[in-house]
């Protein structure tokens, strides 16, 4: 059982894409990709290194920056270095224009609270993600107090997170969801309304022009935020560079090989002058290169990489910068996917503050390219296809055929059809106010699971070599919004012995005061951290009171039958 958007009348053109055509195309493409990998799969190895480093970070995005900031505090005497293939850091997925759904804390993302066939809404995933976002608030607040981050208004702003759905069936789902979330103090203050007048107070431009008889339901949480991950990343690297971290932009890593002493020899080619190569020997490598993380992990040759493949998906948004429109909307409003569409198609109208300017983004509309990065190569998918993952990738194509078909149909949508989809949520939207914007690429994880074959995995996954000298982050959602929690989990896996020492433990508790505790189970501590972080981060909307909330137990759920479906956060 799942809620649906039965009132939606906007659909892609169908009838042109069949399973038979997909199989033929996939087999042909697999042969091309496999051939490319065989003939062009070798890698360069330098005779010697230019220098040695303790930790090498590959990729200049939010994940590498966050890990670098943690390690610089935990081990200030270690040496660190970054290789980034673009001319600037934070220009791929961390760029504010390449993602819309930031500030992920499961307040409005309905796919994190699935309803099973018995009609029960499960909140364990939502609680987990919200807990992780509380770590983000504490981590960023700590960096503001230390001076690594400047004016909070440049990277985080209070922005209510909302839902807007249509019809009786979806109203029933929302009612059950709100009731289920009342069990957790993390979701305190959430309001639900079926009154069009009240909803219009919250989101006027989404209610103007709507038929009076239409059945609409909305929720609103005051705890939501909009986060500019690019601004955070750039400030982190500026600080790390001042502390002595060498940051080499415009350099593409093309070789990762093992040395006899267990360290790694990594060579990065200067993209402006390919005769120039920088080579380092590193004790530890972290690959936080977004979509490029998978092929880079494969370069290392570690056995753990063989179980993974990837499926690239892009997104396109409608954007308006018209102040007459943007000034009348302050919210991230998520709807529900149309019947038969995957959750990645969930429409949302988001307020964003980018480079000091307020804009609205609506989408996503799925796009497809064989590139693993927005600024990548059309051969990315070919180079990442190997004998160990080619069959799992084809299996996912068959098992998730509805997703493949959806993507094919999305590619046929015209600007007029995309505007029609927007008018489902903003009836009086004008063509001249909106333009299309191509956002970033995401690579969904395909994992070869014993007994199941290829499985399309949700969320992110930390991969660590057996000797813990190589680690990488694969996947997308919820991504950068919970980067401090994700990098904490990586530290626990890569440096387990050091994490047990008093020095590291005390420093982590200084950075994240509630480390090791579930705030869902400690409402008084949650209220204290809300107050402290809201003050430091200058959040304009007050946190709700937690008076009367008893400690909530960890959700001990045994979900009924559900079908996990792919999600992408753009």
Automatic annotation (TrEMBL):
The chain crosses the membrane at residues 22-41, 53-72. The keyword Transmembrane applies. It is an enzyme of class 1 (oxidoreductase). Residues 560-570 have a biased composition (Basic and acidic residues). One of its GO terms (molecular function) is L-malate dehydrogenase (quinone) activity. GO terms for biological process: tricarboxylic acid cycle. It catalyses: (S)-malate + a quinone = a quinol + oxaloacetate. Keywords: FAD, Flavoprotein, Membrane, Oxidoreductase, Transmembrane, Transmembrane helix, Tricarboxylic acid cycle. Pathway: Carbohydrate metabolism; tricarboxylic acid cycle; oxaloacetate from (S)-malate (quinone route): step 1/1. Its EC number is 1.1.5.4. It comes from the Bacteria. Residues 549-570 are annotated as: Disordered. Its cofactor is FAD. Belongs to the MQO family. HAMAP family: MQO. This is Probable malate:quinone oxidoreductase. It comes from Duganella radicis. The gene is mqo.
């Amino acid at each position: 059982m799942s809620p649906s958007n039965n009132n939606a009348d906007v659909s892609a053109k169908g009838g042109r894409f069949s399973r038979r055509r997909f199989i033929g195309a996939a087999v042909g493409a697999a042969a091309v990709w496999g051939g490319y990998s065989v003939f062009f799969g070798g890698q360069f190895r330098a005779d010697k290194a230019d220098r040695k480093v303790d930790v090498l970070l590959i990729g200049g995005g939010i994940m590498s920056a966050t890990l670098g900031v943690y390690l610089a505090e935990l081990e200030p005497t270690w040496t660190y270095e970054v290789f980034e293939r673009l001319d600037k850091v934070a220009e791929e997925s961390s760029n504010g224009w390449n993602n819309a759904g930031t500030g992920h804390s499961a307040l409005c993302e309905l796919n994190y609270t699935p309803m099973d066939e018995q009609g029960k809404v499960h909140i364990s995933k939502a609680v987990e993600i919200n807990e992780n976002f509380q770590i983000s608030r504490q981590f960023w607040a700590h960096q503001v107090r230390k001076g690594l981050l400047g004016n909070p208004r440049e990277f985080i702003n209070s922005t209510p997170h909302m839902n807007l759905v249509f019809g009786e069936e979806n109203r029933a789902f929302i009612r059950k969801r709100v009731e289920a979330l009342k069990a957790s103090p993390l979701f305190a203050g959430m309001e639900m309304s079926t009154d069009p007048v009240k909803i219009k107070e919250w989101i006027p431009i989404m209610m103007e022009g709507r038929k009076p008889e239409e059945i609409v339901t909305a929720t609103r949480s005051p705890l939501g935020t909009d986060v500019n991950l690019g601004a955070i990343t750039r400030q982190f690297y500026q600080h790390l560079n001042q502390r002595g971290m060498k940051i080499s932009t415009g350099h593409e890593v093309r070789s990762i090989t093992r040395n006899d002493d267990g360290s790694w020899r990594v060579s990065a080619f200067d993209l402006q002058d390919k005769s120039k190569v920088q080579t380092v020997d590193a004790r530890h490598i972290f690959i936080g290169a977004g979509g490029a993380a998978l092929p880079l992990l494969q370069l290392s040759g570690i056995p753990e990489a063989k179980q993974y493949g990837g499926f690239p998906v892009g997104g396109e948004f409608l954007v308006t910068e018209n102040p007459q429109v943007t000034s009348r909307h302050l919210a991230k409003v998520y709807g529900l996917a149309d019947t038969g569409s995957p959750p990645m198609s969930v429409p949302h109208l988001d307020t964003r503050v980018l480079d000091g300017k307020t804009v609205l983004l609506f989408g996503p509309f799925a796009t497809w390219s064989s590139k693993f990065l927005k600024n990548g190569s059309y051969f990315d998918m070919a180079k990442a296809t190997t004998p160990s993952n080619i069959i799992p990738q084809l299996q996912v194509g068959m098992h998730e055929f509805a997703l493949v078909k959806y993507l094919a149909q999305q590619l046929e949508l015209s600007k007029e059809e995309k505007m029609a989809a927007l008018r489902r949520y903003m009836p009086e939207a004008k063509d001249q106010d909106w333009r299309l914007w191509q956002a970033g690429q995401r690579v969904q994880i395909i994992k070869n699971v014993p007994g199941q074959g290829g499985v399309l995995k949700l969320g992110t996954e930390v991969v660590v070599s057996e000797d813990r000298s190589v680690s990488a982050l694969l996947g997308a959602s919820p991504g950068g919004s919970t980067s401090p929690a994700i990098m904490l989990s990586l530290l626990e896996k890569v440096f387990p012995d050091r994490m047990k020492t008093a020095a590291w433990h005390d420093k982590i508790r200084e950075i994240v005061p509630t480390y090791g505790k579930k705030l869902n189970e400690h409402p008084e501590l949650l209220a204290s951290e809300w107050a402290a972080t809201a003050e430091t981060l200058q959040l304009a909307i007050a946190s709700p009171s937690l008076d009367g909330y008893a400690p909530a137990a960890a959700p001990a759920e045994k979900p009924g039958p559900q079908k996990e479906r792919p999600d992408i956060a753009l």
